[in-house]
Structures are given as C-alpha cells and as structure tokens.
Queue: 3 jobs
Job 1
Amino acid sequence: MTTFADLNLDPRVLQAVSEAGYQTPTPIQAQAIPHAIAGRDVLGIAQTGTGKTASYTLPMITLLSSGRARARMPRSLVLAPTRELAAQVAENFDIYAKHTKLTKALLIGGVSFKEQDMLIDRGVDVLIATPGRLLDHFERGKLLLTGVQIMVVDEADRMLDMGFIPDIERIFQLTPFTRQTLFFSATMAPEIERITNTFLSNPAKIEVARAATTSETIDQRLVLFTPSRRDHAFAEKRAMLRALITAEGDGCTNAIVFCNRKLDVDVVAKSLKAHGFNAAPIHGDLDQSVRTKTLDDFRDGRLRLLIASDVAARGLDIPAVSHVFNFDVPSHCEDYVHRIGRTGRAGRSGVSITIATPADEKYLAAIEGLIKQPIPRVAAPEIVFDDRPDRGEHRQPRSRHQGRDDRRGPREDRSRDDRPREDRARDDRAPPSAAEALPVIDPIGAEALPPPRRDDRREPRRDDRQGDRRREPRRDDHRHEAPVVGMGDHVPDFILRSFAPLAAASGD
C-alpha cells in the first residue's frame, strides 16, 4: 500500500500531513503527486471529494521549498472559479505549509484591494485567486506574472460554465512559456480539452475514475411529482421539499439544498425558515462576509440547511454532509455530479434526493446518460399544501403605501395634520363660491373691485400676479372696440381713438 512517505515529499510537508491525520493518499494523489514533483504537466480527472486539492498543494509546497519570492512577482499561481473554492485552497495551504516559511496571498472579490496590494508588494510564493480579481490587480499595475513557475487551474470545467475561459487564456499568455501547468477537473468538456492541448506540454493524464461518475457511497433517489395547477407548482414544490426533509427525520443531520436560480435560493430559504426549519441562503450576490459566516455556521453545526446555487457546488468542502436535495434538476448535467458530490465524501455514506416535474424530462435524460446509470425512483411523500401564500411566496408588486392602506383604511381618514391650529381652522371653512373667488371688474373701465375680505397672508404672490395677467385683455385684440379695462380715469386719449376713420380719409 502506498503511503505519503513513498511520494518523495518534503519532510516538513510529511510532518504537516501526519499532524492533519492523513496516512494513505487517495488514488488521484498517489498518481498525480509523483508526476508533479518530477516537473511534468498534469491533467487530472477525478470526481469530487477525492482529494484533488492536496494533489497539487503538496507537490507545490515541496517544489517551492527552495527559493525566495520577489515583490509583485508570485512564484506560483492557483486559479479557482469561486471565492469559496479559493478560500478552501488557501486553508489547505496553511495546513500543509505550516512548517515552512512560504507565504501566500488570496485574491478574491469582496475584500479590500489595499490589503491584497500590501501582501503582493511584500512578495508571495503562492498566489491563490479568482480570474476576475487577478486581472483587476494586473491591469492596475500591481502584479507581474512573469515569475510564475507553477500554474494550477482547479475545476477547469466550471471555469468554462462561468465564462472564464477568455480570462484563463489571457492569464496563460501573461505567464512564462516554461511554467509547469497542472489541470484538475471532475469533467472534461471539449472546450477544456482544446485549452489543455494548447497550453499543456505532453501532460501526464490521470483519470482515476471515469469522468462525471458519482460515488458509490451516495444513495441516489429521484422523486417525480406533477403539480395540481401551474400557478401552484412552485409552492407545491416547496411543500414537497419540506415533506422530504421531515421524512428523513434524525438521519438528516445537515443538508445542502440546490436551486438553479439565485432568486429561488432566497425564496426557498425564507419559506423553510417560515415553517420552522433552520435554513440560510448562499449565492454569488451576497456579501463575502455574509457568505463566510453562513459557511462557518454550517460547518460548525449551528445551521442545519444550506440553500445554495451552483456556484457553491464547487467550493464547499464540508466532510460530514448527510443529505443533498436538488430542489431543481440542474440544466447542465455535469452540475448534478458536483452537487451530489457534496455528500458521501472521503468514504462516508450520503443521500441525494432530486425533485423532478414533467418539464425536467430532457434534463433527467442527459444526467442519466452522463452517469451511465438510471437514478432510482422513489415514491413521493404526502404533502399538505396550503394555497395561501407563505412568507416565502412571490407576491404581486404593490405601491409603497398599498399595504399600509389595506391595514389602516384610507390614508386621508387617518393621516395626521401637523400644521398650526390656525391654518387648519382656516382651511376647514367652507370654500368660497366661484363668484366670490373672482374679482369684480367694472365694465366702464373702473378699477377692479377687491373680492370679499379673506386672510390671504400665506398665499403666494406669484399666483396673484398670474391672476392679474389672466384678467388683462390681449394686446393684439384691437379689432374689437371694447373699453379699456383696469386703467381708471388715467387712460391717454390716443389709446381711445379709432384709426379707421383716418385711414378712410387718406384714401388708403
């Protein structure tokens, strides 16, 4: 039987591995580590939970044990698709390199650039990053990749799904041609194979298990149900999920529930919490501090149900997850392998339960074709469905004051008037009639008589001027011989004259 001592690792690395409680390497570790230490490029394909992270972390620490890091020029680079997976790699590096003087930096989103720049300026041996944040630092002139000796791409197929392939190709072009490249993934898509043929030189291909296979320690189940009504499908599906969790009883110590959309993650989490379950969501739109706290609570047992999107399927390394529930059938068949791979890790037993509707038939066919076996069907439990929306239900959008009006009645009946008492008393009087409101105009050109006396001290002056302009006749209305109104006895004589007789006398 092969042991870690047989893999030609650095003695300080062997001491750290022994203190971590590991004695026997997994198949992917036993085959990949010797090639990596020999300096060859490695293409490793293995299902999730088989120890791929240690397959490149241990030889990397051994190869970097001699040498010194320079400012802004890391000696090795590890690319991961998600923040959680990058943080997991950083934790593994801390465990296995604790007896060495190697330094590391973690470049992920949600963390201040300033702190990361300080680490890079001091020089790091290992740089662990997500592609987007790495390129941000490079474009800001804070990072050089010309000193990279070892480059690792973890979960390469997930990089393809998340649209990182153009970034990966650009990062490869920024690194030296003489670098050593290690590729690890659970599945191998044609696009990933094209990249490996382009950037890997005569790699040692290690495939310890058929690509996209599931662990034999996972009890897979499929629950088929047809919703009674189309508009009740989402609510009935949530009721089915609650019934399945309840049916597992104490055997379900903790579980991850996967949804296809981030919006559904939030809704399902709120619905479960509303029905008394200890649940919390995690997806890419949450702040990094919230995601970190949620994962810590789940690892420590303070959180029973973790509602996650597929982004989290690649970054969660929690050894003792008893159940995985697929609330939605994944649209990409490879994601099914990664989802259920969160349970049954390191030889433990686990249960995965998938909820499917008739609309998921083509996705189920693709999954069963990928894993080369049918998913066993089980009977659906009885559900109690209440068509009243719970707190996790989508509600129709309402106006800002609609909910308040529904509870308290019309707003004008219960609104509070904070104006001075004298102003409220004045406004409570009966409004003046139309005849009282308008000024009385003298038809013979006398001055406008004032309307009945009112206290108009608070009325804007602008309105008074506008009212005066409305009462003036049009200046171009000289065709009608009407008396000039509003000027009193001070009307000049020439304005009152008619020019028509003068024009007739002149013969025009």
Job 2
Amino acid sequence: MKSCSVLLTGLASAGMILQMACTPAVKAEYPEKWPEVERYIQENFLSYVDTTSALPKPYCFALNPGTLYYWDLYFINEGLMIEGFWEQARNNVDNFVYEIEKLGFIPNAHGWGEDRSQTPYFNMMVRSYWEKAPENEKDTAWLRKAYNAVLKEYEFWTNTNGNTIEDHRTPIEGLQRYSNHADTAALVEFYDKVLKIRFKLSDDASVAEKVTVASNRLSEAETMDFTPRFEGRCNEYIPVDLNSNLYQYEKDLAFYEQELGIRGPINWEKQAEKRAALIDQYLWNEERGLYLDYDFVNQRHSPVAALTTLMPMYWHFASEDKAARIRENLSLFQYPGGLVVCETLPQEIHYQWGDAAVWAPMQFIAIGAMKNYGYRRQTHDIAMRWLNTVTRNFVDPQPATYPPFKYGDGTRHPGYIYEKYTRDGQINDAEYPCSEMMGWTAATFLKALQEVNP
C-alpha cells in the first residue's frame, strides 16, 4: 500500500500544481550503527585482497572471498571507488585486461572456473573507473588498452571476428545465450561429482545424457549460478541479463571511440538500438508486465520471473511504460530481508539463486534501476531493507551457530557482515554455511547508505 500525501506546491496561471510526495514505508532499525558498519568496511576492505603467480604483479585482486570471481568484481569496484580506493579498483580492471589478452575471455572463477565465463560486467568496470577516478589516476593510453580488451570480450560473447571459444549464438540474430566450453570428460565429471548429488540424478544415465544435463547446468553457472530461471535447459534460453549487459557494451564502445577520437567499422549506437528493440520484442511479456528469459526452442517465456527483469531499467533503456509495469510487480520479489532473486513457485529443488536468498548484487541493481526512473520511495525502501538486514546481523548475527565449514569454528560473533542472507533477514546457511565477507555485501551497503543518508 502506498503512503502518499498531496502537497500544495504553488500556484500558476494554469491553476494549482499538485505534487505527490510519497513517504518511505521502511524505517531504519539501527541507524546509530551505520557509522560503525561503514568504519568496519573502510578499515577492512583492503584486507580482502590477494594475488597469485598466475596474474601479473601488482595486479592484486579483491576477494569475495577466496578467489577471483568475475561479476563480483564489478560490484566490489563500485564500493572501492565510493571509499576512494582507486589503486585497487584499477588493479581489478587490469587483471581482467590481462585475462582477456591471454585467454580471450574472463573466466567465471580464476583457477578452477575456466570452462565458462560469467555475466559480462568488465566493460562497465572500465567506464565507471574512467568517469569516476581522479585525473591523476588515469590516462588515454590505459583507456585505449581497456577499450581493445572490451572489444575482444564483446567478440567472445557475440562470436564475431572468428571467436569460437564458446557458442553463444541463437536462432534470433542479435541476441545471445549463455554457454560453456567444457569437454566431454569434464562434463561427465561435473555430472558425477556435483549434479548427481545436488539434483538427485540417476546413476544409470548414459554418457550422452550426462553431457546434455551437465552442459545445460554448466551454462547456467555462467550466469548467477544454479537458478530455476531456465528449467534446467539454459542452452535453449535467451537471458534478460546477458543481453541487457551486451546492450551496454555497445553503448559504451561508442563512448570509448568518441573519447579516444577513433572510428571503427561498426555503428555501435545503432547496434545497441537494434538489440534493445529485439529485447523488447522477444523478452518482454505484456501479460505479466516483466522482462522474462525466452525459450527459443518452444518459443515461450520462462515460467519463472526473476529480478533480472530490472536489467533494462538498470541500463536505462526500458520505456517509461515498461518501467512502471515492472515497478508495480516488484512485490513478487519483496520480503522483509530484501528482494529475492526469483518469484516463489512450487519447486522440488532448492536453488541457491532462487526464491529464498537475498543477494547483495540484486539489491545493488534494484536500487540503481528504481533511481534511474525517479522512483524515490522504492529506491529508499530497497536500500533501507538492505541496511537493516546487514546491520541487524552485524549487531546480533542469527543464526548464532552453524556447521563448521571452510571458515570459522561454528560460532558467530557480532561485528561482521556476510556473503548472503535469507528473505526473512537472517544469515543464509542454505547449501553451504555462510562465511564472513566483504565483497559485494560491503559495496551494496555503501551504495544503500548513499541513498538513504546522502
């Protein structure tokens, strides 16, 4: 229910001007603790940094935690730049430049997740750093090198200029899908060691069956991770998030060429406009008022609505009418602990990125999406729920105990922030015990804090 009051703002020759001013519905639980949480982040952010001999020094990378994950680093960089950690933010970008030059793509996870990539955000890291960093922290030679890397990664995702590492093509030219490039042996091993247990699959499946199942699930891991969005057939879906991000790549490639004073063979603005039109044509569901992943084999939308519906709003190419419909339907994902990844539907399998988990990057995207369209109350409320969830568990972590895992001794203590939370606002130990973490949890806290306490 909206809480709005009509304010008389003045008189004009045409009559009275009325403005609807909406009072935020979500109240702060521990505002006096926000400075303490922010101070903890400031003092510890750079403690979650590591390096490896496989990457060039001094390109140390921020952890999320434990390894170099791809899409995590976009959100981490946004937090680092809020706090002015410019050197580390640039190191993170330079790591990815190095990986693209060496491998032709950015792996899902450095060292062990190199048979697929992950939802592409590298380009956005480049532009964000270029626009926000102080002048003495950047130069056009760096931008030219980064631009070449963005272009090379774009070719990986669109299979242009002979890039055949992975096949992202779909029957709809101009729209891409997730994929992987694991060989048969790796896919069979993935089935036997991970999927068989995780999804309670048959021991008696043939090699061909194992490869089909494993390939779809490994492609699914190229997005956020296991999710009900694709019904176990990720290779047959055109995803909202991937294509929305590739739209932004096309917009930014035009921006880089203008900044560098160069002109390539592609009109990137027209390329972006074409992709946006295709997204509206194939991924928009008028009946539900949402962008939904598209099953190109059965020519229908996914039955599972996901918060990725916000991506065209986050990159600001959704029409005002479509944005209004999405805002109206945001309640599908809204819980006391924050926005969950997918709507709640009857499911036999618990998905890590499904209807029970509240993840930091989805709150970050939702804040940006709502703010782009001037939805002040929704922006405030999403930010406030995240601040409340993180701060509540900083003060009094619940559950207070957990099965000992890779980190800790099984007992939680006040004074930390965590990797993931539940829709009820507690620490999320589903699938594996949740660890203390900085990463995108900290970055989203800082983003939310900016919105409610500018």
Job 3
Amino acid sequence: MDLRAQLADELEAARSQTLALLHPVSDAALTRQHSPLMSPLAWDLAHVGNYEDLWLVRASGGDAVGASYDHLYDAFRNSREERVRLPLLGPAGARSYLATVRGQTLERLEHVELGPDRPLFDEGFVYRMVLQHEHQHRETMLATLQLMDAPGYQPEVTPPPGGLAPTVGLRPAPSEVLVEGGPFVMGTTTDVSAYDNERPGHVVDLPPFWIDRLPTTNRGWSEFIAAGGYRDARWWSVEGWAWRCRAGLEHPGGWQRQGADAWSVDRFGHHQDLVLDEPVQHVCWYEADAYARWRGQRLPTEAEWEKAASWHGPSRTKRRYPWGAGAPTAELANLGQVRFGPATAGCLPAGSSAWGCEQMLGDVWEWTSSDFLPHPGFAPFPYREYSEVFLGSEYKVLRGGSWATHPAAVRTTFRNWDFPIRRQIFAGLRCARDA
C-alpha cells in the first residue's frame, strides 16, 4: 500500500477507536475529574487533537486550527489536578475540534514530502509519532476509566470472558530461564517508529542472569500478602517502607478482601473474583521491589529485560518483538484493549522470546530496577519535552506494554517511565536474579 494511504488509514482507525472507547461515557463523566492523578477525559480528547494540530497541520505548513487552545492543552503548563479548572472544550466541542484538525491533516498529507530532506517527515516519522501519541492517550483514558466510581465503565464491545487457558505440556515448564552472558544491541538506530529515548542502538555486555519465564501472578502476590509482606520492613527499601506506611498500602490497587483467603478485584467499577493465575497489576515500583526481595530475587535491569525479550543469541540478531518480526496477533500477545484485562499467565507460548520468556509484550507493563536515563549518544528529537525533561533518577523504567497498549505503540525497545509511587497504570513485574 502507498505510504500516504497507509498513514491515512491508520490515523482514521486510531480515531475510530478513541471515539468508540468514550462513546459509552456521559458528558458529565467526560468533564468530571475522577482522580487528581488523572485529567478529565474531555481534556485528553481535545489534547489529542491539539497535538495533531501542532505536528501534522502546523509543522507541515498548514494554518493553525486551534492555536487559541494551545495554552489549555499544554501538558507541561497545566498539571493534571489543575486541568479541571480550565475553560476546556466540552465533549461536543472537543469532537468538533478533532474532526476539523483531521480534515486539515488529511489534506496536508496529500502534498507533504516524506523523504530524507525533512527528518521530521522522513518515512512518515511524525505521523507515526502522532499515531502513537493517540494510542498512548487511549491507554491513559483507560486508566482514568478504571478509577471511575460505580456504576463504572461498561465497554460497548464485550471482552472475551476470563483469560485464555494456560498451555499444559508433557512436563512442567521451568519457572525461570537462563539468559547467557555477553554483548547484545540495546535500543535501535533503524526502527522508523522509535522515539528518541530508544535511540541509538548500542552494545551492552551483560553477565548471565536468570529471569522469570512469566510475569508475577495474583497467586504469587496473594502469598506475599499472606506471609505478611506488607507488614515486614525487611523486604522494603527505606523510601518504599516510608511510602507504604504513608499511603497505607496493604494490597494491589483495586483488590478487596472477600473472607479470610479470597479476594475480589475492581474492573472498571465492577467487582469480580480475583483470577489467581492472571498477572498482577496496579502495583507500584516500591511494591514490586519489595515482592522481588521477598522472593529472594530482584527486579531486572532494563538492559536485562530487553536482552531477554529481544536478543537471539545463536544468530546475534535483535528482534522487534520477542517472537520475531511478525506483527502482534491475538495468539502472540494480549494487546489492544481486546480483553480489558490481563490474560492467564502461560496461555501465549507462541509469543515466547528466543530465551523462552512468555508474555513480555502485553498484559502488564513490567517494572525494572533502572532509572530513566539516556542511551549513550542520545539526542532529543523532535522536542525536548517528550523524553529529555524526564531523564534522571526520579523516574523508574517500565517495559513491555499492557493489555491496554495498542500494538503500534509497543516493541522490545520501547521505554515507559513513571514515578515509583504510581499504581494507577496497568503495571506488574517479573523477577530476576544473578546466575
């Protein structure tokens, strides 16, 4: 397919998914702030349009459609907790703004040069950037919808029931896999969709290590709770224990005890029995770090995570996805808000990495031990505020994507980051240890 036609189709598909996600939500719920951690949904909706206005209309030489809105939808000028007090576009106004911008975008796309003379537009980079931005905001909207009070959010498309059944082999699969020591290429220099913080590709030499074959499950986490993990400072860093006490953490976000040993979990305002063999989600970095210590393990570094996910040792080649170059499918990864929750751990063996790690893309973002630091040779592009202003020890890196992540917005080099206290995101973990 012609590149312009492909980009147009992907832009329209992303917009259709965004509008469909919010269609069941009332105007009142779209304009309300459901948590000080999150923006009103109507802000996110118009922000998606303003970002497209900036990068696909104005940056391509078109006239500004909504320059008068820039101060309202600048994420760096207005904190999330302040946005509800701004004179924002209402839901109808936001949708109208989206449609107007999109018309200009498609018109500009017909004529803009997509060659190497303009790095921003080379091979459609800026269009892929804007696409990923909308996909990422849809995941952010899902995190907001998860925080809504009852009766909560009911998607118009009913997700498949439960998780897929785990595959049962002739003999039990190992709980850990060994990743051999030696050099590998971390990051990328060639992926046309990669953000600046994924670049450039560079060689990292690691000692051998063990890493869990599967992400940590609710079953494992319930054992941590039963063993008093939330009440024993031995397993927590000093900062983590102080936060646990201050925040009153006793279990992952959304869990509610049902009797002595059973739990339910809140899924978009609807309580359901906790599925023990699903990956745990809504845990912060401090919790993940404490759990790993309790297990006698640790969180993997992001270099270890990326090598386990992407590197094929025998051929010394890097994979865009754990299983290879083929695009994600439902048999390979649980992505794209199809199930509205994690799938059963062990149910997607076809998506294994070369080392045998499963479900490294999709289901839950996985905390690593690493601070969000630049790769050697990092250069901000196309603007500092995407990555550079966040670089440092204040943020921890997450890898792998969640069930809510769109397949176009994830790969083995993709880096996410957040504060170590954050748990509204769809985040879990897998553990590692030295070999």
